[in-house]
Amino acid sequence: MRARSVPFLFLVLVAPAVSAQDSLLDLLGEEEETKEYSTASFKTTRVINGHSLENTSHGVLDFRIGHRFGFLSEGVEEMFGLDQATIRLGFDYGVTDRLAVGFGRSSFQKTIDGFAKYKLLRQCHSGCSMPITLSLFAGTSITTLTKEKLPWYAEEREDYFTHRMAYAFQVIVGRKFSEGFSLQLMPGLVHRNLVRTDEEENDVLNVGAGGRVKLTKRVTLNAEYFYVLPGQLRAAIVPEDRLDDPNPGFKNSLSVGLDIETGGHVFQVHLTNSTAMYERGFITETTGDWLDGEIHIGFNISRVFTLHRPKQPQPPGSKEEGW
Amino acid sequence: MLRNTFMLLAMVPLLTAAQKYGTRNGQLQFRSETPLETIEAENFKGTCVLDASTGAIEFMALIKGFQFEKALMQEHFNENYMESDKFPKASFKGTVDGMSAELITRPGRHDLTVNGELTIHGVTKPLSTPVTVEVQPTGATVAECGFIILPEDHDIAIPGMVRDNIAKEIHVKVKAELQKL
User: Fold this and answer.
1) How far, in Å, CA of A116 to CA of A94, rounded?
2) How many domains are contained in chain A?
3) Predicted ipTM > 0.90
4) Which residue range is the domain that position A201 belongs to?
5) Which of B79, B117, B162, B179 to mutate to test the interface with A (most CBs of A within 10 A)?
């Protein structure tokens, strides 16, 4: 009798208890954590003049128009700068999600510029741990002005093609601190093959800082500043009141603006003291003084075209179409 | 005799308890079609569990799991419309009427109805829709359904400028191949 009731008791004990479960989905067990990289730390690939830590996505072509009006200090006669303009037209392309390349042409000094930008480290908050995004930037600019129009032209001088060139290198390191706030630092170096005088440096060390604050879902406030270490630049002719400046004749680039995003466009409107829109120009050749009203109203338009969509990995058993 | 009957009865819970089916690879697709623009995306990582004995069903999908043709569209979908950092999941909890442990083992195509609540963007609304459960002779079970949702029902704000680019009714299709758990 005892021997028979043991198996019976065993069965009763083994029968699964009906427990009140929070969710049926718990039966599937723990999901593997998928890696989630931070995205959209800035609305577009530029803070204002300088590059942001966002890259153009894989297979995407970004058509960029940059426009700067004249200085506000020009007064009513030039309609506070609206009558004057410099433009940059350019294309950025995402070769992969990490590597972006681009080129453009500015009307300022008829300059062509090109760059490559590689995202070495990506900020990751789930499934991995990396607190910052780090990108490496390398760019070059060439002025295509005819020989006689070059600022350094003199009949007796030999015109070397390489004198027209400059290079810029930057390490862009930054972080999306929250949904509404991102900040980045851009230590870098601009190399000019030809400089004005002996007192100027060919290699100009600088540190930039840029950030954005989200005002609404689609509008952000951006600001950017490039600090050029003192004693590296000197203009050919320096106005009297600027003789004691750390880089006489030149100012550090300071810009502030709004990013407005609408569908496939990002519209950036800003105030900046820099006239040029390529690194050599806005880092080492900014002459505008904010306090004197030498500020340009400017805007950038970014229009994105998806040229091709990279293949997404499909789980086994799923079909491409037909359902 | 009585003891044997008793023993047999005691085994009944064992026989009916393990009637749970599920998958981690449920497929979801949604589509918004207007004369201006077609927006569609697919998610291949929906999780679903069905308790065939009671008909209780639960489905969950991560919003960030929806894949779009255009990277920027995917970014806007998550950042601006679905706010997927705040509301990372869409989920459904309900019952399949007519489901039973017996039905799910009977090969053939069964047209049933699922009733429950759908939570998207943190807002829960009732959802009732026909669902087809196809039980193949091999034992594989495929559940398919399609329904329409309205973005405004789930507090998804659409700015005036793009109002005409996004359909008022979004067509959703769900397909899950359920395995016995």
Assistant:
1) 10
2) 1
3) no
4) 46-306
5) B79
